[in-house]
């Protein structure tokens, strides 16, 4: 058995071979209580991880920017929507939020250390709006005019040190208004997102996810959606440039209604017809940094579904989805005589969308020209009460019509179109054929198709 003196001599011999750092650890760390050693080790690992992040010379921090908005039937109070295409100015650096309100800021090691120490940083948020207007001169070759409006607001970004990302930041709506002599289009939350022709994508029906109120769960989460129907699993899509693209995770906040607009949808297979049966499944990662098993919540589709009307579904954990079953087919072709007022006979418009075709005549180069107006509203001048859904307008009514709507198309040839908004949807009125026989039976054949994206 080794004596205490021999053990001490052996320990001194080993200690003599240690470096200065090794002697320091042996003297001050290994002789501490176990809980002190564990706490020190955890701090060391965290510092090492942060140092590893900063080794390339830059740190990338992510966050989500939200816009507070007024409550509505689709998005009850408190309601937010992603702050799309907002500019965040950090010193001399500008970053842009994407269509989901997400942004990334690249900072230097010194900036990161200061941010980590203080826990927040104040940035300048800017919103640039390009408002375009098509005047009559545009049809004669003149350039389209644009009005640029810029607004700014200071905002404090707070760092979540544990997650190494920014906490949710909220800004009020900037309330940009059109100015000068430009004729503005109606407000469009997704005006910078490419629009795709609905009839070029697969399936007649689509189930849109328009809003969500997540019950409990993490303060912020990136969620994904799947639809299980007819033995198939359908992933959430977004239409862009005539293509259906996967959406990926969508950021949301808990215990607040998030307005997603009419952007994300499930394409229903061709054989599917209302009512659509099945389950919408919502999933998000769990635990700190999403390292643990995720959480799921199911929403059963109800048997009562009205096309093109929003309805809400309650989930298995108390969350609420606002969805809409959308018909992507075009309306039946309709012939509208000149100087006539036409009500689109389609249930999607609830007798609230009207079209007027003005005088049809030849211009100085012999082209046939006319003006077409789209009027949206429950009391648009007067409602035709005959089977043809059409009526004549008097001169005074026509002048009132011109002042009532911004949707005007001066057309020369077949194939021209004008886009308009109805409810939460966007539609395109197309000029399919111009019939101009001699006499008073001149007419224009049109249809209306939904737009997606």
| Overall number of structural domains | 4
CATH level-4 homologous superfamily of the largest domain: C2 domain
Q: Are there runs of 5+ residues with pLDDT below 50, and where?
A: 131-148, 176-201
Oligomer: single chain
State the end-to-end distance.
82 Å
Number of helices, where a helix is a run of at least 4 consecutive DSSP H or I residues = 6
Summarize the structure in words.
- By secondary structure, this protein is mainly beta.
- The protein has 4 domains: 20-55; 59-171, no CATH class; 196-327, Immunoglobulin-like, CATH 2.60.40.150; 334-452, no CATH class.
- 15% of the residues lie in helices and 44% in strands.
- The strands form 5 sheets. Strands 1, 2, 5, 9, 11, 14, 15, 17, 20 and 21 form a 10-stranded mixed sheet that branches. Strands 23, 24, 25, 26, 27 and 28 form a 6-stranded antiparallel sheet that branches. Strands 4-3-6-7-8 form a 5-stranded antiparallel sheet.
- The chain is elongated, with a radius of gyration of 31 Å.
- Residues 131-148 and 176-201 have low confidence and may be disordered.
Main traits of this protein?
mainly beta, Immunoglobulin-like, six-stranded antiparallel sheet, single chain, 453 residues, 4 domains
